[in-house]
Amino acid sequence: MEERRELVNRVHREIMDEETVEKLAGVLPPKASVCDRVKKSLRSNLHLGCLSSSIKRSLLGSIPILSWLPRYAIKENALGDLISGLSVGIMQLPQGMAYALLAAVPPVFGLYSSFYPVLIYFIFGTSKHISIGTFAVISVMLGGVTERLAPDSDFMTLWDNVTNTSVLDSPARDAERIRVATAVTFLVGLFQIVLGLVHFGFVVTYLSEPLVRGYTTGAAIHVIVSQLKYTFGISPLRYSGPLSLIYTVVEICYRIPQTNVGTLVVSIVAIVGLILAKEFNSYLSKKIPVPIPVELLGITIATLVSWQANLQGKYGVDVVGKIPSGLQPPVFPTTSHFGQVIGDAFALAVVGYGIAISLGRIFALKYGYKVDSNQELIALGLSNSIGAMFQCFAVSCSMSRSMVQESTGGKTQVAGALSAIVILFITLWIGALFEDLPKAMLAAIIYVNLHGMMKQFLDIPALWRSNKTDMVVWIATFLLTVMLNPDLGLAASIGFSMLTVIFRTQLPKYSKLGQVPNTEIYRPMEDYTQLREVPGILIFRSSATLYFANAEMYQDALAKKSGFDMTKILSAKKKLEAKRKKNEKQKPQNAAKNNVVDMIVKDYGEIGVEVVLASCQSGVIDNLHTGGFFNDKVTPPLFATVHDAVLYCQSEQISEVMTGTHL
Prior knowledge:
Elements: H1 18-25, H2 34-45, H3 48-62, H4 65-68, H5 74-102, H6 108-113, H7 116-124, E1 131-133, H8 136-149, E2 158-160, E3 165-167, H9 170-197, H10 209-232, H11 244-255, H12 261-284, H13 294-309, H14 311-315, H15 338-367, H16 373-389, E4 396-398, H17 399-407, H18 414-430, H19 439-449, H20 451-454, H21 459-466, H22 468-506, E5 510-515, E6 522-524, E7 537-542, H23 551-562, H24 566-586, H25 592-606, E8 610-614, H26 618-626, E9 638-639, H27 642-652, E10 657-660
Parallel strand pairs: 7-10, 8-9, 8-10
Antiparallel strand pairs: 1-4, 2-3, 5-6, 5-7
């Protein structure tokens, strides 16, 4: 193998401090204040040409369809979008009906939620590949709210003279649950619109990938448990609040002897059949351009069998029931529920947006286009708020449908609009044919569609190898979501994630640097064996920003690395205590960061140690200037590189010098 050619770097220059470097580099003047920038923007926009251009940009940004639809390439995109739209529309039918059960509303409202919001997102959305519509996690969170505010116990108003027992008034219960669901959905949309208008899209950066994946896995457990009653054909009591999942599982186990055998048989056959069909579909995926609509075939076969065998009449199998044809007229949501659901609505708004933008960014990165996070908030908000007026429940992005939309050739938002047309056709003319569909079949569809989320448990060993802190976040989020329910679990998970961030900044790595022989390079002494200390100079570095939470640890680590007797420093501080108190009364204290640096410079200076700063970021230097750190009394030398600081100290022939390299 050829030997690597040696490259020589020889630089001869004077020792330069930060001020000299800024002069040579031509530092820009300070940025204008917010007020000045606003005034300048208003003055420039008042010009007629600029004003019209600004209005046009704003209009195209707010309604993206005006920008991309006129440039739609029919030859390149039309066929792929058509096949993709038909495939996703066919998937929307069974998934919409199934996820309506999760939201505790009649299945037909899942069809409405697969139509109106999709059309609205087609107009206002910026992602070309995500499939907006019903989603399991959002539906189960919404179902918790509707069942809490409209429980079965409130509608046991009918009396059966034969059995002398109360009978559930299902139509009245369903009507109330629809009112609750639309009220929540309307507020979800309002929150998302407001957050988008104030450019709050950056909030998704605080929803880390381990948090989102742990949360969706925990929510999937809630989804599974919520569908067990349809699988076994039982009617367990409903529990709410923390640990309700555990109580529900215990209640279901207690009622298993009451299982409807016919319902259980339908469930087992449906689950096994769907799994086998999906595996066969995966096997054929490379041989056929469009996947087999397994779920549509499943609900069609189940409906035919239920109708022919009269499963409801003979075996007591619960079926979907009446599905009205046509669309519902718009109705403004019931405002009386707003005060009761505002907290749940905010949680749904954040979760729905987080899932949609995460998947949208994945596709945008893959295909090389940009997704506007704030516009996505507004698009989702309009989809939910306008959809609520047409009796839709909260929607987000479905991972399974989005993958199908992308894999079948979908190139633009047109694919989503075509899927909505498929749902419109089904709702107007075909929906009534599925009235004999067993609910156990819909539950089976939900179970099988959750297999992707269940695979997220494999994240744990992968995170153990790559980042143990992220693994702890994943596990904690999962446990909190399972134990506290999705709404409280989300808040607790974000709080825990923030604590890990604080924990990381409070435990930075403090290093004593040594020089690589015959170079101007400095590395931590504890990580290398051939480094040498610079005589009479201590070079100290912190890996994290210095602020009030880790200021004390910074000082302790500095004292430990320097090896100075801190009692001597404290003694010197006592002599100046009276003088400092007098100065503090005369002028307010600076920021915590500047006070700590000021304290270090003064305290070590009292015992004859000069502190020199080096390699500080420009933002740190600006903060020091703003805080009045550099003045006539305290002006420590500030250098662009560690080596400049070392050469300066050696030239000054100071007996004991300490250099801080990171603030």
